[in-house]
Amino acid sequence: MTGFRAIAVAIVKGFVRDKMSLFFALVFPLMFLVLFGGIFNFASSPKITMVVVGQVPLFDNLPDGARQAFDDSFEVTRSRDADRAVAEVRKGDADVAVQMRGNTVVAHYTQADQTKAAVTRGTLNAFVDGANQAASGTPPRYRLDAVRVEDQSLKAIQFVTPGLLGWAVAMSAAFGAAATLQGWRNSKLLRRLQLSPVPTRSVVAARVVVTVLVALVQMAIFLGLGLVAFGLQLTGSWWMGVPLLVAGTMAFMSLGLLAGAIAKTQEGAVNLANFFVLPMAFLSGSFFPLDGAPPWLQATSLALPLRHLNDGMLDVLVRGQGPTAAIVPMLILLGFAAVVTLVAVRLFRWED
Amino acid sequence: MSSGNGGPAISVRGLRKAYGDLAAVDDVSFDVATGEFFGILGPNGAGKTTTLEMVEGLRRPDAGDVHLLGEPTWPRNPRLLPRIGVQLQASAFFERLTAREQIHTFAALYGVPPGQADDWLERVGLTDKAGSRTEALSGGQKQRLAIACALVHEPEVVFLDEPTAALDPQARRNLWDLLRSLNEAGRTVVLTTHYMDEAEALCDRVAIMDHGKVLQLDSPSALVRGLDAPVRIFVSPHLVTADDARAVAGVDAVTDDGTSTVLSTRSPSAVLTRLAELNALEGLQVKAATLEDVFLDLTGREYRA
Ligand SMILES: Nc1ncnc2c1ncn2[C@@H]1O[C@H](COP(=O)(O)OP(=O)(O)O)[C@@H](O)[C@H]1O
Ligand SMILES: [Mg+2]
After folding, report:
1. Which domain holds residue B165?
2. B91 and A14 in contact by Cβ < 8 A?
3. Site residues for ligand 1, CB cut-off 6 Å
4. pTM here?
5. Distance B51 CA to ligand 1 centre (A)
6. Residue A237 domain-assigned?
7. What is the ipTM, given to two decimal places?
8. How many Cβ atoms are within 10 Å of B199's Cβ, its own excluded?
9. CATH number at residue B249
10. Nearest of B166, B217, B153 to residue B12 by alpha carbon
11. Do B76 and B212 lie in a common domain?
């Protein structure tokens, strides 16, 4: 027990004194969190800038509810010169220019930003339809009531935090295991420990426990910062994220062990771990949601442990799924860890 | 400090290890007595490290038998481990720890209190470097720390693999004093080296190894005596010419190496007395045979570490 504690303390000291590994475990992923959570959040629904040429009575006589929606969607400037207004749209200074020709509302817009173009057309159509209906005097027969299925407050930070946390944990767990196995073998420290009375399982346990602790600290910092600074909102069974993250840590450690068993030098081991982790992070939706990805890529990504960690974390942290949603990802991650560790043990050689 | 059964501290019989076609260790046998300072001497690649690691129980021998303090070393024998101390190479440290943290960690592995660890830091002269990270220590300081870490639990038998390799001459001499003191405190010490002078200076007995085999095993002086090599006396040619030298009784051969007249003799005291009478002692040098001559005699090759 004193042996286990001494080795764990030595690993912790080695970790916090290593500026590079601290940077990659915390600072680097947090930079992404600030970037995605801070900047993209505010840019997520910008208003559409509209130039109104002359008088457009339709807009001036909107009923109250429609007025509200109009003001939310558009930022209006006025102009007398139709040509100048269209030129502004062409240059990208405004999104749409609107004028009346008789009873027709003419909207000049560009397809440069397809989302805004679609919103502009749809919204204007709705106002025109509404105005036509009001003019006809008959009440509408059909209404559309759109309700989003996610938590009403779902914002970019909700998606970004679990994914980036998974990436950060993958990096530090894989790098730590790779560097320890390779470095300790090269320096003969591993053999030196073999000749001490401390059982091998204590040495392994010390490394595992420290890696899990680092992962939990990463989780606390990511969720804490998200909650305090970026309006992250956790859902009911978020605590299931803790055992899920521990299972993920095991899976990434096994990848690091594999890298450490194969590589001939410590730098080689860390580079190889990076070679495993970075593409995995992209393909597992840590940076961008996979919803838009082609089906074959989505299917392929199911072979990656980070994909299952990310899915499970999204489910329990922000999608409001029950605690059981984490069970299947956990089993997959632990199975992955067991298989890859066995492979690493088979490939491990004391000598190069 | 006994093996518990009155036998030798270490007993090695018919030890073999091959890497592919290469016989790294080829039928090696020796005993080390309790309290002995034992050396394994040989050039690089002779098989010293492989032999030592099999004796320690780190490597499984292909054949042969090792008993340490009366117990077999393979498979890993946890009862034996607290009784032996091992310095493998000077880099076997935890990363980014200070010298003190390093030895405290090793002490904890053996259940040794930190105070005793600090004592060892003091004994190897590293107290003023206690707060420095291992990476910042010099080669000699690292070696001394590695030795202190190997000894912190007061083992009965100590294994040191080339502890003075890559050290400057001053650091080597300092380390020799430390190693002597370990042995004088009653410990059995086994050391490998490729330095002839180190083996001569430190070891009670030396096994000379080459190509995986032990060529000879005895005390350094007995090895040299066994050679029956002549003593060479170097005198100034201005004081003693080659012809003068040949006239001296007891001289077997005379050569001129360009700067000195060289007299080979097996009765050096008679020759030296005669040279004193001739008033030829100024600048005189005497060279006895060394382990290098023994190696040359055994292998037919010049010794090159
Ligand atoms: N793990 C290994 N794999 C293959 N060959 C090895 C291995 N270890 C040592 N050798 C070879 O065995 C021989 C003896 O090596 P070693 O015991 O390290 O010699 P020494 O310590 O005397 O320099 C050398 O030729 C070396 O190249
Ligand atoms: Mg060696």
Report:
1. 10-225
2. no
3. A 351; B 19, 22, 24, 42, 44-50
4. 0.79
5. 10
6. yes
7. 0.84
8. 24
9. 3.30.70
10. B217
11. yes
